[in-house]
Design brief:
There is one protein chain. The chain is α+β, with helices and mostly antiparallel strands. It is built from twelve helices and six strands. The chain has helices at 4-16, 38-42, 62-74, 76-97, 119-125, 152-218, 224-258, 267-270, 291-294, 296-316, 361-429, 435-469, and strands at 49-50, 102-113, 133-147, 281-282, 322-334, 346-355. The protein has a four-stranded antiparallel β-sheet. A two-stranded parallel sheet has the order 1-4. It starts with a helix and ends in a 16-residue tail after the last helix.
Length: 485
């Protein structure tokens, strides 16, 4: 057994020792005080506000909210992300267990028979009291503990904890992506349905126009050129319908997959067209610096950086000796089990182990340089992720504001064309113009209405992209402090 003063000295050194390698400090990333597009976003006129945590409810569409809720419960990408969190948690558990003593219990029993026909049996048979039947029994309790004197195991635990936190943030990032994709797909469906309704009305208008021109042509009041032009315009509109229907089918199938259901599951529920959801006001967007805490993809990049920093310490710890304690207490006997646990059968041992890669420093140097290179790569990835996140927000803000401006202009155009169509119909009733001009006014109005619907759809999708870019859809937790001493 080890002397008591030696054991005390080892444990005291363990408790007082510091972990080798650099302590992690989150790097500063230059960020603007305010987004360039923030002022324009604040000046938007919206009918409702949206809480950043549950932004999809701000669109005021109950079915949209229901589908996002279903996706967050049933999506299979989220199921995979949750499984990755479980794996990372198990890795953290293994790293924690490496810091603790391990123990085992072992035992064995054996029964043997010695034949007197063998040379050994003949010799033993000549011995008085020889028993041809023999047995042996043994029971032991053992324990071992690697003393983390230089902190390599603690750095390993730090890396495992950072990996676990990164996996949690990755699951949140998947959650946000699922919510945004579900909302985007739903809005696309509503936009395509509205455009299909306009296209079908336009087909009817073009057919009426063609019928009128053919009638005039039969009476010699219209040229053949006008007939062919009308036929071409009708064919162009008719050809757009299959394209829109294909896009609608694909969007409905995509929504079902997002909900973890077979394609076609929710088609009947979506068959009836509905209005395009109106984008809400983006409230409490926060500063660019808050993206570092709110966007889960940035948290993933930062935690990976922390893990790579800790692994430098794991590599450096290989320079130093590994010290371990092990002990065994047990009992062993032979012939009879009746005296297995008597004083005469007891056995005990204690071992102070030392392992030192004394002549392997070249390989250790290479491992340290590799770890430092991985840390430098993770740092560059983190800084790039911050830049891309800011770009993402700025682009989303710009798209939202500009699409809404486009929608407003097109709405004015639709109002003007609607008034022009009304005036042309009044003039037709008075005999001032022909029916062709009325139908052409209808055609212009429908084309402008289709352009407005596209702008409305894109502005609603841009709002979804803005909420996603801001990291909306969850409530961030306060970061955990990791102290390695």
């Amino acid at each position: 057994m080890l002397p008591k003063h030696t054991l005390i000295a080892i444990v005291a050194g363990l408790l007082a020792g510091c972990a080798v390698g650099p302590d992690y400090v989150q790097p500063n990333v230059p960020m603007l005080e305010q987004f360039h597009g923030q002022a324009a976003i604040n000046q938007r006129q919206a009918t409702s506000n949206a809480d950043l945590v549950t932004w999809w409810a701000g669109f005021g569409d109950a079915r949209l909210t229901r589908f996002v809720t279903l996706a967050l419960e049933q999506n299979l990408d989220l199921a995979q992300a949750s499984a990755r969190v479980v794996q990372a948690r198990a890795g953290l558990g293994a790293a924690n267990a490496a810091l603790l003593p391990s123990g085992n219990i072992s035992g064995q029993a054996a029964r043997a028979y010695q034949s007197i026909e063998t040379p050994l049996g003949r010799v033993l048979n000549s011995t008085p009291g020889f028993d041809r039947y023999g047995g042996s029994y043994e029971a032991d309790v053992g324990a071992s503990w690697e003393l983390d004197v230089f902190g390599g195991l603690r750095r390993g635990r730090e890396a495992a904890l950072a990996d676990y936190q990164a996996s949690e943030a990755g699951a949140v990032a998947t959650r946000l992506a699922v919510a945004a994709q579900t909302a985007d797909t739903y809005i696309t469906i509503r936009g395509l349905q509205t455009r299909l309704d306009i296209a079908r009305r336009q087909v009817q208008t073009e057919q009426d126009l063609l019928s009128t021109i053919k009638l005039l042509y039969s009476k010699g009041l219209a040229a053949e050129l006008q007939v062919k032009q009308a036929e071409g315009a009708l064919a162009q509109v008719q050809a757009s319908i299959p394209v829109l229907e294909t896009g609608l089918d694909a969007a409905m199938n995509a929504l079902d997959v997002m909900l973890g259901a077979l394609p076609g599951t929710h088609r009947a529920e979506l068959a009836e067209a509905s209005d395009i959801p109106t984008p809400p006001q983006i409230a409490a967007a926060g500063s660019p610096g808050e993206l570092l805490r709110r966007r889960p993809d940035l948290i993933v990049a930062e935690r990976r950086l922390a893990a790579s920093n800790a692994r430098i310490g794991v590599a450096i710890a290989e320079y130093y000796p590994k010290v371990s304690l092990s002990g065994l207490v047990g009992s062993a006997t032979s012939i009879s089990s009746s005296n297995l646990f008597t004083n005469g059968a007891s056995q005990a041992s204690g071992v102070l182990g030392l392992r030192w890669r004394l002549f392997d420093f070249g390989r250790i140097n290479a491992q340290i340089e590799q770890a430092k290179g991985q840390e430098a790569e993770a740092l560059a990835a983190y800084r790039l992720a911050a830049l891309l996140a800011t770009e993402d927000v700025e682009n989303a803000f710009s798209a939202l504001v500009k699409k809404e401006e486009q929608t407003a202009v097109l709405t004015q155009g639709v109002d003007s064309l609607s008034r022009a169509r009304s005036l042309s119909f009044t003039a037709y009733q008075k005999g001032a113009i022909s029916l062709i001009e009325v139908l052409q006014a209808d055609e212009n109005l429908l084309r402008a209405s289709d352009a407005r619907v596209q702008a409305q759809t894109e502005s609603a999708r841009a709002a979804v992209a803005a909420f996603k870019a801001l990291g909306g859809g969850w409530q961030p937790k306060e970061p955990e402090a990791i102290a390695i001493k």
